[in-house]
Amino acid sequence: MKKIALGVDIGGSHITAALIDLEQKVEIEDTWSRSRIQSDGSAEEIINAWAETLNQASNGYDLKSLKINIAMPGPMNYKNGICKIKDQDKYKTLYGLNLKQLLASRLGISPSAIHFMNDAACFLKGEVFSGSLKGYDHAIGLTLGTGLGTSYMLDGKVKDSGLWNMPFLKGIAEDYISTRWFVKRFAELNGTAIKDVKDLVDNHVGTAHFETIFAEFSLNLANFIHKFIRKDMPLAVVLGGNIVNAEPYFVQDTRKHLAEIMGYSFPVKRSALGEKAALLGAASWQ
Predict the structure, then answer these.
(1) Each residue's pLDDT tens digit in the chain (286 positions)?
(2) Shortest CA distance to 224 belongs to which of 167, 269, 285, 159?
(3) Is 281 within a domain?
(4) Dihedral sign, Cα of residue 265, residue 267, residue 269, residue 272
(5) Residue 55 is part of which domain span?
(6) DSSP secondary-structure letter at 268?
């Protein structure tokens, strides 16, 4: 039998799962399953929805014979599978619960088959495993979305950096490098509300405020990356998350600002795997 694992990526509003061929470094055909999750639901509703998605992704394989590796946002006791998320408008009902035991019970498998890992670290590991950072052994990863995920890799070992709350400008890094910054800043400049960065790109491209907000974001991002580089001295950085879908409006300027700050060009790469990165990274975790 092929060396396979069930890779899972849990976000604030979704769960994605697929069987991964670890030798070919690809998902197994017809196993991709993605579902929206009501993260404000009861613990039972959330666990049941997760279990249903995992059953769909197993596609006839016996879950009892599979290693199930799950990328999950923190804070969390990953080793024991205990959720520590609170005050984040998601998964409030899971706080303090042993998700490993609850999910295993719902699936009818041993808790020892389920492994939770930090989602930002899984994103970076996925890009090293089969994405834009293949061949690198020292790098950092940023996931730019609802929040800010940070991770680093040294000698093939990937860890969550937890720099979302690093002191930055007049607050913390996540205050300036996240969807909520775009929403807040656009309201300050334009006096109207946007839902997210996609809304900004779809409905306001070409306006003066559009250009201003991305100019500010690219400079903020470059300054944050520089702080990250000085801390961990990586050889490259990879960017992922939903905000990266707006790449044409900020990534090149971010590279330019970073080169001006550092005095030389530093590799700033876009995720090659997109939302599959964390899933592949989780599956490949040893």
Answers:
(1) 469 999 999 988 889 999 999 999 889 999 999 999 998 999 999 999 999 999 999 988 889 899 999 999 888 999 999 999 988 778 999 999 999 999 999 999 999 999 999 999 999 999 999 999 998 999 999 999 888 999 999 988 999 998 999 999 999 999 999 999 999 999 999 999 999 999 999 999 988 899 999 999 999 999 999 999 998 899 999 999 999 999 999 999 999 999 999 999 999 999 999 989 999 999 998 7
(2) 167
(3) no
(4) positive
(5) 4-121
(6) E
CA distance 74 to 159: 13
Own/partner long-range contacts of 87-92 (Cβ < 8 Å, ≥24 apart): 88/12, 89/39, 89/40, 90/12, 90/13, 90/39, 90/40, 91/12, 91/39, 91/46, 92/40
Q: Among residues 121, 143, 175, which one ends one of the domains?
A: 121
Could you tell me the pTM of the whole model? 0.88
Q: What is the CATH number of the domain that holds 209?
A: 3.30.420.40
